[in-house]
Amino acid sequence: MEVWYPSRKVGPKNFRQRMERVCPGARESTHDNKRQSHSLGTDLRRLSGRSMEDDAPVIYGLEFQARALTPQTAETDAIRFLVGTQSLKYDNQIHIIDFDDENNIINKNVLLHQVGEIWHISASPADRGVLATCYNNTSDSKVLTCAAVWRMPKELEPGSHESPDDSSSTAHTLELLCHLDNTAHGSMACVSWEPTGDGKKVISLADNHILLWDLQESSSQAVLASSASLEGKGQLKFTSGRWSPHHNCTQVATANDTAVRGWDTRSMSQIYCIENAHGQLVRDLDFNPNKQYYLASCGDDCKVKFWDTRNVTEPVKTLEEHSHWVWSVRYNHSHDQLVLTGSSDSRVILSNMVSISSEPFGHLVDDDDLSDQEERRPEEKSQEPPQDSVIATYEEHEDSVYAVDWSSADPWLFASLSYDGRLVINRVPRALKYHILL
After folding, report:
1. Residue ranges with strand state E in 29-169
2. What pLDDT does 197 receive?
3. How many other β-carbons are positioned within 10 Å of the β-carbon of residue 409?
4. Per the record's keyword annotation, is Transcription included, yes or no (predicted)?
5. Which of 123, 270, 324, 329 could bridge across to 344 with cysteines, CB 3.0–4.6 Å?
6. What is the pLDDT of residue 159?
7. SS (H, E, C) 201-254
8. Four-CA torsion 160, 414, 151, 86, nearest 10 degrees
9. Which residues lie below 8 Å from residue 210, measured CB to CB, with a gap of 6+?
């Protein structure tokens, strides 16, 4: 049943005071002038699948514009996200966002990223303190997007974390480990880490080149191990890429223009190509973490498509829920039927793609696997296969949503980032969570 109700104030009543205490310098953006100027008609929002019992979203505002977001992949205990800013006037920053889910508040630390505005950020899967950024560098009136690997200060790593009162107002300095030298290859689009490795291999995409790097000497040196190039007419450029967690991490998918291509990292040769995967530019890719050969893509045609790379003539499924470019798509790491998308229509959509998931008939777990609060319900689960559907539409953003991602510590929690610097942390609706678990 659909429920209509007026939008509520985000967070607890003392959210403004809490933000000012924990996050000085950040603007609390839940009650700005734009939201106050909305008419009653737009204030009545439909949030499909969300009820009054669901936890309210938590919003954090950065001082600068931003489009780069990643969870701290190697951190599986604390809920932590990294956000990179885009400022032309001031030193850019990486905000380390720690979410306290018990008290529903955010703690943050700030790292200075003085080399340029951040276009992409990724975290090492093996070392919690190591990350990579792609950033703009201006030299001789030319702008080149470069890439580097960094280490955050030891005191900011979990276990040796300063208290918010001591650290939140102080900007820390990143330690440069190495540059990924792209002087001969062009502007970097993204850096992707080998998913299950020791954090010593990364793929970077530079113009029409795909580059495989070995990080040596404690990541202080990057050696180009192999490379491949796009061949064809025109100025071919990669827009995004993703390293597959399957096949012993020997496959990478890339997007250029309207095409999606697969590569074997051992030979750096193309293994499949989806020509015209989208009607317009492909913006993002993600592999199903639990089902081999399945890949999601999104693009400027407002669509999200799901592919079986063994047969790329037609997509397995297509979603057309967004009304503008779709910038980001992410599978849930544990429950691959849950798919997040973010778009220039300012919305985040959570879809339940159960029919093409690794468990299309649902999942049964032992009582021992459930917490006291998640005891098995007496009702029997329906034996009919669930249908694909949009679970929830999140409308806390007022600008283009450039990035969405799941927490690496809590499979039911995710973050989204819009260009105005608004980071929103949300949870999967409880009803869906219990349905999946029970």
Report:
1. 44-46, 58-61, 65-71, 79-86, 92-100, 105-113, 118-123, 130-139, 142-151
2. 81
3. 16
4. no
5. 324
6. 52
7. EEEEEECCEEEEEEEECCCCEEEEEEEEECCCCCCCCEEEEEECCCHHHCEEEE
8. -130
9. 203, 204, 227, 228, 229, 238, 241, 252, 254, 263, 268
The answer to whether the beta carbons of residues 75 and 409 sit under 8 Å apart is: yes
What was the pLDDT predicted at 387? 85
Mean pLDDT, consecutive 10-residue stretches, the chain (438 aa), reads: 28 35 37 33 36 79 97 95 96 96 93 96 96 90 92 77 51 94 91 92 96 90 95 87 96 97 97 97 98 97 98 97 98 97 98 93 52 50 72 97 98 98 97 89
Phi, psi (5° rounding) for residue 431? -60, -40
How confident is the model at residue 429, as a pLDDT? 95
SS3 292: coil
Structure confidence at residue 363 (pLDDT): 54
Domains of the chain and CATH, by start: 63-229 (2.130.10.10)
Question: What's the pLDDT score for residue 37?
Answer: 32
Q: With CA atoms as reference, report the closest residue to 65 among 84, 93, 86, 83.
A: 86
How far is residue 385 from each of residues 135, 275, 354, 358, 430, measured CA to CA in Å?
Answer: 46, 32, 8, 13, 20
**Pairing between strand 422-427 and 413-418?**
antiparallel
148 near 176, Cβ under 8 Å?
A: yes
Q: Which of 57, 285, 321, 319 is nearest to 192 (CA)?
A: 285
Residues in CB range of 112: below 8 A, 6 or more apart: 91, 92, 93, 171, 172, 173, 174
For 233, counting Cβ atoms within 10 Å of its Cβ (0-12 exposed, 13-18 middle, 19+ buried), the class is: exposed
Distance between CA 407 and CA 239 in Å, rounded? 24
Q: What is the pLDDT of residue 218?
A: 79
At 17, give phi and psi (nearest 5°): -65, -35
- Written as six digits, the tokens of 122 are 């990724």
End-to-end CA distance of the chain: 20
Long-range contacts of 244-250 (CB under 8 A, 24+ apart): 244/195, 244/287, 245/195, 245/196, 245/287, 245/289, 246/287, 246/292, 246/293, 247/292, 249/194, 249/195, 249/196, 249/197
d(CA 13, CA 18): 9
Q: What are phi and psi of 413, to 5 degrees?
A: -130, 140
Amino acid found at 33? N
Q: Pairing relation of β-strands 105-113 and 171-173?
A: parallel
